[in-house]
């Protein structure tokens, strides 16, 4: 009905890309609907191995392991890697799945203030008594569209002999000059040890997740990671579309660049109109409104004007920080972006937000 979606994680528009859809259909026809098995029994086909190899190549890492979701990748990694003699240091605003994954492990837990390097350093000093230290952070945080200070995190990790883990769900495919993610954007690809990410956002949007990193770590996960060992293999159609999405991104960064240009257009026009947009240069563009009711009525009115956005308020975000989270995609046209800004301006004026 002419409604434009501005609240999906479909950053590159690949979920509707004809080649991605064709790859899914071909995989479905050639490899079947599903494997009725976990990977280590009879759930591994050539396409699963190929996709793991492609993911590792994309991130310039040694190996990769697939999961049914990134939630599962996060649920599996900490328990498999860390013992009660180890420590994990986690940003307080990390995604729920990282928090849950950490809960499942027996390592000593330290929570540092959001992106606060002084606090991380203090916690790293406290954690020196443990055998191994792992710093865990989202690469890009989904509520604020802000990007973890990975350079500083990696420097501290080096100083205090810690490993760095990043969750790249809101970065893979589009952040950095070649869309490799936050580590590429900030020039620390050789310093981040472990990456978890999703196939369910920029990479085709269907489902699936993975860990990529050093081969011995991936081997360990294949032996010990419970969501990998005890959950079904990814369906061939999903593998097919993720694999094609990666091919497209490795051939050219044009799609990612087009999304970045549209993000810039939206952020600068909204700022010029008088709105406060949180974060910087990220397609997650939270329009900060403060009041929960205002966010909800404005989102409703935006829909009446053909723009699909959602208001976020407490407990999803802190009290007094209600917002409408806009997400830009490569499939939006410049006209779509302008229509969204115009609708925000009208609705903002009507409700006294401007
Ligand atoms: N990590 C982050 C930062 C996310 O935003 C999400 C999805 O919302 C996940 C993990 C989970 O990803 P998936 O949908 O593949 O389980």
How would you characterize the overall build of this protein?
The chain is built from 13 helices and twelve strands. It has a seven-stranded mixed sheet, with helices on both faces. A three-stranded antiparallel sheet has the order 9-12-11, covered by helices on one side. Strands 1-10 form a two-stranded parallel ribbon. The protein has helices at 18-31, 46-59, 70-81, 96-103, 117-126, 150-159, 182-185, 215-224, 226-229, 236-251, 254-273, 292-304, 334-350, and strands spanning 4-5, 63-67, 87-91, 108-112, 133-138, 162-167, 194-198, 209-213, 284-290, 307-308, 310-312, 322-327. The mean pLDDT is 97. With 354 residues, the protein is of the alpha/beta class. The radius of gyration is 21 Å and the shape is globular. β6, α7 (182-185) and β7 form a beta-alpha-beta unit. The protein folds into two domains: 16-251, Type I PLP-dependent aspartate aminotransferase-like (Major domain) (Aspartate Aminotransferase, domain 2, 3-Layer(aba) Sandwich), CATH 3.40.640; 253-351, Aspartate Aminotransferase, domain 1 (Alpha-Beta Complex). Bound molecules: pyridoxal-5'-phosphate. The site of pyridoxal-5'-phosphate (PLP) has 14 residues, from α3. It catalyses: glycine + acetyl-CoA = (2S)-2-amino-3-oxobutanoate + CoA.
């Amino acid at each position: 009905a002419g409604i434009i979606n501005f609240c999906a994680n479909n950053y590159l528009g690949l979920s509707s890309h004809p080649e991605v859809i064709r790859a899914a259909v071909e995989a479905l026809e050639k490899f079947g609907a599903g494997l009725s098995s976990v990977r280590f029994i009879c759930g591994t086909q050539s396409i699963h191995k190929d996709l793991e190899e492609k993911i590792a190549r994309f991130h310039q890492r040694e190996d990769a392991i697939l999961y049914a979701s990134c939630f599962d990748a996060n649920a599996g990694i900490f328990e498999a890697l860390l013992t009660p003699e180890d420590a994990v240091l986690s940003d307080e605003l990390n995604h729920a799945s990282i928090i849950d994954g950490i809960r499942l492990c027996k390592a000593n837990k330290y929570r540092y203030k959001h992106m606060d390097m002084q606090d991380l350093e203090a916690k790293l000093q406290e954690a020196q008594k443990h055998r191994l230290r792992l710093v865990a952070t989202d690469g890009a945080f989904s509520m604020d569209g802000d990007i973890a200070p990975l350079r500083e995190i990696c420097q501290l990790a080096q100083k205090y002999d810690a490993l760095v883990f990043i969750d790249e769900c809101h970065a893979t495919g589009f952040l950095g000059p070649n869309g490799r993610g936050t580590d590429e954007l900030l020039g620390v690809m050789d310093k981040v040890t472990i990456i978890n990410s999703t196939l369910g956002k920029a990479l085709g949007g269907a489902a699936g997740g993975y860990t990529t990193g050093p081969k011995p770590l991936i081997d360990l996960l294949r032996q010990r990671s419970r969501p990998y060992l005890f959950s079904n293999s990814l369906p061939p159609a999903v593998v097919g579309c993720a694999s094609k999405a990666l091919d497209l991104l490795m051939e050219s960064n044009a799609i990612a660049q087009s999304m970045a240009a549209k993000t810039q257009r939206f952020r600068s026009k909204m700022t010029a109109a008088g709105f406060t947009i949180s974060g910087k240069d990220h397609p997650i563009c939270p329009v900060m409104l403060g009041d929960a009711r205002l966010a909800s009525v404005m989102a409703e009115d935006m829909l009446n004007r053909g723009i699909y956005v959602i208001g976020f308020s407490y407990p999803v975000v802190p009290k007094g920080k209600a917002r409408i989270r806009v997400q830009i995609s490569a499939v939006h046209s410049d006209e779509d972006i302008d229509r969204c800004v115009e609708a925000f301006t009208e609705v903002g004026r009507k409700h006294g937000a401007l």
